[in-house]
Amino acid sequence: MVLVALGMIFGPVVGYIPQYREIRASKNTQGFSIMVSFVLITANIVRLFFWYGKRFDLTLVWQSIVMIAAQLAMLELCVRIKRQTIGAFYQEAGSKQPEHSLWDFDPKFFWNWDDFGSYIGYLVFFVTVLSLVLSLLI
What we know:
The protein is mostly helical. 74% of the residues lie in helices and 0% in strands.
């Protein structure tokens, strides 16, 4: 039974391990869309909040926590490589790299920011809003 639970917790993220290693080794993020991270992080945060209202098996709670951690790791790697790649391009061209962050409030660059802190800031805001909504409903 424990092996099944561990399989359910870690199974969904196992496929991201070789992808993470490949992206890190090749310094190329073209095989991964950061929108995947957005969808999976958002869905798993919502699942965690749903658990407060209607309890379900803790295996699924741990699965969500592990998936959020895995997607944050993938997202951080992609942002770091993007900054290095684009930064080198602009440095060779002798111009300043344009920066996009959450604080620009530009919907055209939503979830396509240049710093990992913007993603964390958005997630803190999202969790805060969900917390307020949940506190009003329960």
